[in-house]
Amino acid sequence: MGSVSLKIGDGTARFKRATLCSSAVNVLMLFSVLTTNLFALYAFTSSPNPHPLHHSHKNISLISEQVSLILREIDSSQKKLAQMEKELLGYESIDLSRPNIANELKLFLKQHELPLGKDSRTGITEMVASVGHSCEKSVDLLSQYMNYKVNGPCPDDWSLAQKLILRGCEPLPRRRCFAKSIPKIGLYSFPISLWKNVSDRIMNWSGLGCKNVQCLIGKKLNRDCVGCFDLVNGYENQRYVKPRGKNDFLINDVLALGSGGIRIGFDLGGGSGSFAARMAEKNVTVVTATLNIDAPFSEFIAARGIFPLYLSLDHKFPFYNNLFDLVHAGSGLDVGGRPEKLEFLMFDIDRILRAGGLFWLDNFYCASDEKKMALTRLIEQFGYKKLKWVVGDKGNGSGKPEVYLSAVLQKPVRV
Q1: Do residues 394 and 365 lie in contact, with contact meaning Cβ atoms separated by under 8 Å?
Q2: What separation in angstroms does the CA of 317 have from each of 293, 351, 396?
Q3: Which has more confidence, 344 or 129?
Q4: What is the distance, to the nearest Å, from the Cα of residue 88 to the centroid of all Cα atoms in its chain?
Q5: Phi, psi of 195 (to 5 degrees)
């Protein structure tokens, strides 16, 4: 029948599928059937009595008491089963009775019964707040995040929220306060905005080491963002149109592989949004997934007229199946940890990519031959057609070459 695993603390609890709840229901039904049959047998086999009416009332009263007892047992069992189901699903994994829990967190996580009772389509009877299961491990930080003045200004604590997200507390609960508002003065119109430097004043620099764009220029924020905030000088405005090595594919060449069917795309860890900007010039809409790690990526991307999506790569992508014509990923695909973690990510990429769509792996850093082979085996598991596949070396400034993999793969049609 299979099993279901729940990670609780440092251990793993396993429950046999359809065993715990169904066994309890079966025992209850068997008890009810046996009790009913015994009373029926007693009623039909009891000896004749000179006062049948008196004994009939007595038997009916006894049966009524037993039926009431059975109904109470059924109601109690149903409540226990519902509680077990909630615990298994993690609905009540956060102990709200703990001290120093913010009232707003209690209100948000409180379950609300549906006004018209049970929903016939979904079977649910109450609404459960959407909050990450891992929030229970960071409940003190979560309570701090939910400690604010209702209808007042929100604390300037976006860095706290991001810390929770990176700990797996995603999605975060909603808040009833007004986020800090920064006047967006000096924005350029589209498409001029794609390659114009952004003003420092339209971004929130709290919680960051740098306090202006000039500080970010020249910094290696990650492998896909080296000087990526300089849109005028340097290499950023030449990316995807002028290669620096054999691993750098050109946008026109990749779009030609899509046979003119590339309209919408998704970019994972897209730096300052230059990939989406180049695609916008080709009338292709690209959503860029990003976080504000060491820089205001989201605001910078939005100022360029591109769509940033603020989420971690551990979160299931909030898109329906088979939507995108193109998925682009660089070294941000390297989620670290166990190989299964990369598998989960790859399966979600495959889910949102339509049949015949392109997966563009752009300069993925292979720290070792073992890692390169593991990624190659994983890609081959999906049966993608290799339209382009290049493994090349790059210097890292220290004289020691590093190995990178670039590929354009086409998702097959599966039946």
Answers
A1: no
A2: 19, 9, 32
A3: 344
A4: 19
A5: -130, 35
pLDDT for the residue 56: 62
| Closest of 380, 375, 373, 372 to residue 402, by C-alpha | 372
Say which DSSP state 202 is in: G
Q: What is the pLDDT of residues 268-277, one digit of tens each?
A: 988 899 999 9
pTM of the shown model: 0.72
| 212 shares a domain with 317 | yes
Long-range contacts of 305-308 (CB under 8 A, 24+ apart): 305/190, 305/191, 305/193, 305/194, 305/280, 306/194, 306/273, 306/276, 306/277, 306/280, 307/276, 308/273
107-129 pLDDT tens trace? 887 777 777 777 777 777 777 77
pLDDT band for position 87 (cuts 50, 70, 90): low
Domain membership flag for residue 31: yes
Same domain, 262 and 380: yes
Helix H or strand E segment including 260: none
79 and 215 in a common domain = no
Sorted by sequence, the CB contacts under 8 Å of residue 149 that are 6+ apart come out as 177
Mean pLDDT of the chain: 82
Domain with 259, as residue range(s), is: 192-410
The residue that leads in pLDDT, 107 or 297, is: 297
pLDDT, position 93:
61
CA distance 415 to 412: 10
Domain contains 7: yes
Count of all residues that appear for the chain in the document: 415
Q: Which two tokens stand for residue 284?
A: 């292709």
Co-location of 125 and 219 in the same domain: no
Asked whether residue 300 carries a pLDDT value surpassing 90, the answer given is yes
Dihedral angle over CA of 139, 141, 143, 147, nearest 10: 180
Nearest Cα residue to 85 out of 75, 74, 77: 77
Span of 53-57, 139-143, 246-250, 330-334 with lowest mean pLDDT: 53-57
Between CA 393 and CA 380 the distance in angstroms is 22
d(C-alpha 204, C-alpha 3), whole Å: 47
Distance CA 376, CA 96 (A): 46
Instruction: Please tell me the total count of domains within the chain.
Output: 3
Structure tokens at 389: 């596949």
